[in-house]
Amino acid sequence: MEMNDKRKRQSMILYIIIAVAIALGLQRALFSNMTAASVKQVSYSEFLTMVDDDEVKTVSLNQSTSAITFTTGEEGVTYETTSWPNDDTLIERLEKHDVKFASKIEDSSSQLWLYMLISYGVPLLLIFLGGWFLNRQLRKQMGDDGPTMDFGGGGFGGIGGASKSGAKIVADKDNQTTFHDVAGQDEAKESLAEIVNFLEHPEKYAAIGARCPRGALLVGPPGTGKTLLAKAVAGEAKVPFFQISGSEFVEMFVGRGAARVRDLFKQANEKAPCIVFIDEIDTIGKKRGVSINSNDEREQTLNQLLTEMDGFDNHKGIVVLAATNQPDVLDPALLRPGRFDRRIPVELPDLAGREAILKLHADDVKMEPGVDFAQIARTTPGASGADLANMINEAALRAVRMGRNRVTQTDIEESVDTVIAGEKKKSTVLSEHEKEVVAYHETGHAIVAAVQDGKTPVSKITIVPRTSGALGFTMQAEEDEHYLTTREEYKQRIAVLCGGRAAEELIFGHMSSGAANDIEKATRIARAMVTQLGMSDKFGMVALGEQRNQYLGGGSDLTCSEGTAREVDEEVQRLVEEGHQTALKTLRDNRFKLHEIAHYLQRKETITGEEFMNILSRDDGFAPASVQGGAAQ
Ligand code: ADP
Ligand code: MG
Ligand code: ZN
Fold it and tell me: Using a 6 Å CB cutoff, which residues line ligand 1?
């Protein structure tokens, strides 16, 4: 208590100082022609140049004397332009450059009055407001020893030109985004179409007494177009779009988050029908009271959000959309009926979706005719819409670098590599021996892949180091989209991942660190097989874990006893070892091909799937019996 009193007094003094300083600043800025040390004369054209250069801060236009007085950020200096020609474009120009301006009819008495008000009234008001605000903050912070007090923050509503909570709420009026800008995601668009309809004709729904969804939750991995979809809904319905991001609330001053939410909904209420979009809702919507250092501020914000969502008049046509890539951490209260009761999955695009997204973004750049987007879509399983958009942009940049004015297929193929594995890294110079090891490693992956599995042919092998740290990679393309993966296929994937290390062991008799990533991936697949997919002989169809962070590549939390957990580990180990043995055997059987291709790769650094398959299936007496000849195209 004592501590708080002392802090309060200190804070109060600080507040008074700040208030007086602000008042003095205001006085200076607004009445600099009365107090300023110097007035500089400039011509009208000089004035315009300064406006265009964004130097001018405030302008007052005197209608009766046709003089313009203005200030730049410069201390104590006022500029004056004595003749002001009839210029209709001036106001527009000032607005364009964000200059604060006022026109005034000379009237020194009213000016004096204003002067007095600002000199004495404002500090008093600030002190009053500040004290009140401080009090409120302190009361909230009792028991919470937040070390710093943020004076710069809120409380000065209206003065800084911000809205009451100081919230920067984006209402996008010129939102041109529509569903045409979102490729793929047909199911998501379908679910959202009803919301669009509701926003367009809220009265239709009200007339029949239908309760339209208040909120919908867009869930999916990062970069799949959730933000884009939300914007498109507003664009389709031609309604305002209010956007805030959950991450803005983090680390916010106590009480500000809730105030901002209140403010947001107040504005939305005035502008209804409209969309309120809360991006990254998981940052405020985490389950309450689960962690030890529960974040009081976040809970308040969340509570306010819930209150607002329950409170608003649904017939007006406010729809709250939210997006998250961690739906499992959300507070169940958010998902209750009447809140975010609709869940709209926005998944990674499938083959057709990827092609559509590539084509859509390619529309914005100049393309060489005849680019095979389907082929590129096949080599990019797992890429998000954002990745694909990025690939097209990288390709365009590359075309410019190469001095061309059209983007070619090769540009895109190169940029796929860049997005997947990072830029080519020139500074990494591998010794010939290291290069040989990498070549064998990658060839190992490729051969195991080709021999066991005709469905995802190898499309490229490269041993050019990348900025991501990868020294090489083997790319496999999907033939067709398939949605179910069998146990055999998972086992094959593990074997392919083990292929790199197996080749190193077989040829050099030693292991290198290059396989760390492969091992991690193989282990993850094996673990999922055992704990989630019911694919192990030992446990059968029992889910032993709960999935966590589904969209962020997280694994699972085990939900079994400690003893079982140990057995799970053993089973995982067994599956990976099985894959390892399969890989070793495959490579032993194809030892000559392994040598031949690895040496070829070492020389060429990058080879296509076709070249690879040509060598692998060439009948030079060593052709592997099990290769399906036509697998590569
Ligand atoms: P999220 O919010 O899901 O993380 P965004 O909506 O911010 O993803 O997407 C980022 C960018 O990726 C978009 O601006 C767009 O250029 C591109 N993008 C993502 N998904 C798609 C899609 N389905 N169609 C077209 N472009 C997409
Ligand atoms: Mg987003
Ligand atoms: Zn590898």
Answer: 182-185, 222-228, 323, 357, 360, 385-386, 389
* Cα atoms in the Cβ-side hemisphere of radius 13 Å centred on 290: 8
Return d(Cα 517, Cα 520) in angstroms, integer: 5
CA of 95 to the centre of ligand 3 (A): 58
* The predicted structure's pLDDT at residue 3: 43
Nearest-angstrom CA–CA distance, 450 and 447:
5
| Alpha helices (runs of H) in 509-590, residue ranges in sequence order | 516-531, 562-589
Q: How far is the CA of 551 from the centre of ligand 1 (A)?
A: 15
Give the distance (Å) from ligand 1 centre to CA of residue 363. Answer: 15
Reported as a pLDDT band with limits 50, 70 and 90, residue 79 is confident
- Please state the rounded mean pLDDT for residues 110-132: 65
Q: Kindly tell me if the per-residue pLDDT of 138 is higher than 70.
A: no
pLDDT tens for each residue of 590-602: 999 999 999 999 9
Token digits of residue 254: 């106590």
Q: For residue 95, give every residue at least 6 positions away whose Cβ sits within 8 Å of its Cβ, in sequence order, or none.
A: none
pLDDT higher than 80, residue 348: yes
Average pLDDT score over residue span 196-210: 85
Pairing label, strands 318-324, 215-219: parallel
Q: Which tokens is 226 given?
A: 């959730």
Residue predicted with more confidence, 333 or 358: 358
What pLDDT score does 48 carry?
85
Mutate-to-test residue for ligand 1 from 218, 228, 360, highest number of ligand atoms within 8 A of CB: 228
Q: How far apart are the first and last CA of the chain?
A: 78
Determine whether 442 is an active site residue. yes
- Our measurement of the distance from residue 423's CA atom to the centroid of its chain's CA atoms, rounded to an integer in Å, reads 21
Ligand nearest to the CA of 499: 3
Q: Which band of pLDDT confidence, cut at 50, 70 and 90, is reported for residue 107?
A: very low
Residues 571 and 542: their CA atoms lie apart, in Å, by: 14
Residue with CA at minimum distance from ligand 1 atom 27: 385
